[in-house]
TrEMBL record:
PANTHER family according to UniProt: TREHALASE
Lineage: Eukaryota, Viridiplantae, Streptophyta, Embryophyta, Tracheophyta
Protein name per its UniProtKB record: Trehalase
Biological processes, Gene Ontology terms: trehalose catabolic process
E.C. number(s) listed in UniProt: 3.2.1.28
PROSITE patterns for the chain: TREHALASE_2 (PS00928)
An MF annotation (GO) of this entry: alpha,alpha-trehalase activity
N-terminal signal peptide: 1-19
Catalytic activity: alpha,alpha-trehalose + H2O = alpha-D-glucose + beta-D-glucose
Family membership noted in the UniProt record: Belongs to the glycosyl hydrolase 37 family.
The species this protein was found in: Linum tenue
Keyword annotations from UniProtKB, A to Z: Glycosidase, Hydrolase, Signal
Record flagged with keyword Signal: yes
Amino acid sequence: MDSSLVIVVLLTFLFSSQAYVSSGMEVPQRGPVVPTTPLLAFLERVQETAFQVLGGERGFDFKSYIDMSLKFNLSHTQKVFDGLPRRANGGVPVQEFRKFVAQYFDDAGSDLLLHEPVDFVAEPDGFLPKVKNQKVRAWALEVHSLWKNLSRKESDEVHKHPELHTLLPLPEPSIVPGSGYRELYYWDSYWVIRGLLASKMYETAKSIVTNLLYLLDTYGHVLNGARVYYTNRSQPPLLSSMVYEIYKRTHDTEFAEKALPALIKEHRFWTSGEHNVNVHDAKAGKHSLSRYYAMWNKPRPESAIFDKDSAANISNASEKQQFYREVASAAESGWDFSSRWMRNASDFTTMSTTSILPVDLNVYLLKLELDIINLAHTTGEDTVAEIFSKLSKAREEAIRCVFWNPQKGQWFDYRLHDNNDGSSHSHAWKGSQQNQNAFASNFIPLWIDLFHSDTTLVEQVMQSLETSGLVRTAGIATSLENSGQQWDFPNGWAPLQHMIVEGLVRSGSHKAKSLAEEITVRWINSNYAAYKKTGKMHEKMDVETCGQFGGGGESVIPQLSSLLPNAKQSSNPVAEMARSIILLTFLLLSSSLLLSSRASTMGVLQSGTVIPTTPLVEFLVRVQETAFQTLGGEKGFDPKWFVDVSLKFNLSHTQKVFDGLPRKADGVVPVQEFRRFVAEQFDDAGSDLVAHEPVDFVAEPDGFLPMVLNPKVRVWALEVHSLWKNLSRKVSDHVHKYPELHTLLPLPEPVIIPGSRFREVYYWDSYWVIRGLLASKMYDTAKSIVINLIYLLDTYGHVLNGARAYYTNRSQPPLLSSMVYEIYNRTGDVEFAQKALPALIKEHKFWTSGEHNVAVLDAKNTNHSLSRYFAMWNEPRPESAIFDKESAANISGASKKQQFYREVASAAETGWDFSTRWMGNNSDFTTMSTTSILPVDLNVYLLKVELDITSLARATGEETIAKSFSKLSEARQEAIRCVFWNAEKGQWFDYRLYDDDDDDSSHPHTWKGSNQNQHAFASNFVPLWIDLFHSDTTFVEQVTQSLEGSGLVRAAGIATSSEKSGQQWDFPNGWAPLQHMISEGLGRSGSHKARSFAEEIATRWINSNYGAYNKTSSMHEKLDVEACGDFGGGGEYVPQTGFGWSNGVVLALLEEFGWPHDKNFGC
């Protein structure tokens, strides 16, 4: 039969079927069920037994048990299975079951063999021609190379003995998604083909289509996947799109001609029988639309245990069957599963997929009709083209009348809520039945020309998309409902990103194209970051956090894959997802973004990790933003308060209440409504910590500050000492019991907090707190702080900036070893030192590897390894999100904004947040460039870490470690001398990485003297703090002279810088840590001059602290060094009191230098 005759026959069936359904007659065999096979029924029994026997094991995968192949015939294998010994409860002993499986089955996946694609070349001619950036290009070629890992052909055994396999024999090789998805899948294949076309692998693309056509011809529809258990459902109808894309690239008319009859046949499948539903619109116009409707009413074999468990509380047999059909129909949608198909997002049994007319399905069918028109014209089938032209116009009108909502600027799914949801009668359209919840599917119509060719419409929809809440940090969220289902928030999926982006890009709107490019950059960045972290491409991504893969759903372990080619996948379902390789197409779409050869052009080029925050933090940032809109004008408004509150109820409930708050026309919540919401839903910031009496506190310890002889100073020092009681806290029991309700992290021991808004323990503050505690003889409290910091290090891989969930993505200056060393020095506690040593080595690795590590070639061509600050974050800091967003408001381009946010977070990691020290232009905060600076002080702290580890290792008998770190310290000491020291100026200067086109840490930077930042900062003198630099008297006196001449030493202490910028780590502020390190270094040198100068600085600082305390009855976070007794200002928050490190430094300086009877005290 030639193709024209086939087409005529198919069209006859098509229109007789549609007329039949439209007539209102009852469709025969309502709710069809396609039978399964005896093999499958048996394997389900094996799956169930496996779950009874092994279900508690990590990584247990239902699907692997029905993907196994029999070694012997079914009858024999069943007999052996039925004869297995069983316990009283019917369970088979584990060893017996394992033996049975090993003897009678070949592993899941063994029925497919690795296949080298015939058209694969390592770098195809014309591959991504507009991608000029070499780093992006290298990664794209790595992604391209994954096709080899995912290419399979069926074993000869499958063709020879199909009855032993659930895998269906196919005529051509395929590309599989990866991991537990070992076979060809339908809708995945569209995006696989788009990637293959970018890779110039046209023959492989055609092979996939040939296989899908084979399934369509054999079973009457394209199966969900190429397994016998998928014969009862399809997936979104994208076959025509595959054919059309291949035809556009190859102009293979013969290929198009052969495919055309199959496409018409598929159209009939989707537009007749139970898939077809009629709707009368508001003007009585009648529209034929389609829905998902699986031909199955039992548990899905691949997830039978999961389905049975879900249906356990459904008692009625017919209701159970209907539930199973709804679940299978949701699987047919490709969105398995989502609150989109559920009447109640928290109740999986309310699945009602067949009662929904989906926007996207009908858009795919419109695309099918348009593709058939184009292919029919191409192959000379004008009658076919004419018929499908009428059908496409009718469906376009149906989509407009039933789904489009002009007020919202979106297309919404339509729920069939009236009495009968069958297809045999027409449903009356009601606006209230549009599902107006935010789903990415609401924007899928943009994908096709008919909807994206109208610029006005596109810009209306684009605006709606921007305000929908779906566009997130790392891509488009699938929905806003955090239901735990994988096709819901916070997951993003490659197909949805692609269709929406492609539609926006191909519209005539510049605004839409700009938004599309931004989404593209976010998605590519996130995939790249995840790939760099794991060496794998992932099935889905968490769009809340760049570089974080998604989760949720019935497959607990996210699907991804290693680069190692292996036809037999591990039982742990991790394999690369072919759908993700749509990135190659994204790279084509975003070509205008990729023309620069600078590695800093896109975030994708930053190898910087991004550590995800939590859903709670993300929600509280939204609350913070609303609070600022509503209350921001109030005096004392503090954004941090809103991310430090604790939930009274679960997050899902609180989010729903928040989303339901009334809003004015401008979106602002009325003040009283917002205040009521906060009072009812949250406990106050700080309520998660409770006051704690330190076990080792006494009002006047024995041996307290023996060198303080002046009675007035001594009385005040005891008052400062007593403040430890005010600042001592322990984490509340509620935090330990319900950590998900708090941003505070549970810690094992009590803490000393800085004070005021700083309600939690902080990393580098703790060093000076501990120095004060040691002066106060509170050794146990000091040890408790270290135990907490080691706990954070063990839990998160680094010591966090502070003990809040929003601080997990950055650290602070590495002073843990100094804390341990000081405690050991005072207590001689070898066991304490021994326990801490592995943690100190772990922290050293964190700071000296990855993005923190930078190599510099000095003037003599010697390579030095040094470190920099580099936060694992590229979004606004949650505790100051409104400030960061405002600062970034005039930065255009998503990647530049992300880099700015990383620079800001990295500046916070330095502890100097913020200072002109980190800025390219002192008057422009957006020139923050922290990651392009090698800081003097950070590298001095790391030298101290190496020296401390050497000393502690020797003290605990770890000679090998001591030798190793002694060598490291020698190398760093030399690096500090060669890169930072300036002999002419007598100071150590920060080094700016100006010499390269990018800030990549993987290659050495060539040292240039002009790259030293010769501005006056107190950090230029921090090396004095450690013995190696203050033990040479001549050297120390040179540096002392430089400090005296720098202009930094003022009336009330050492200024942080000489630049009056308004930032708090600039002039005229002085900070306790800087006074202490410089004074202690000078004081412990062998120089009398330096000791005298150190005492003078310490005296000025102590007097100023006392003066401020006398005026305000408080200790202050920072002081104004221009005037004795004045506290400091500037920065993003009001001056704070308390204050942990200020108290500690006063006590430490008094311990070091004392205070004679006759010395004046006060301002």
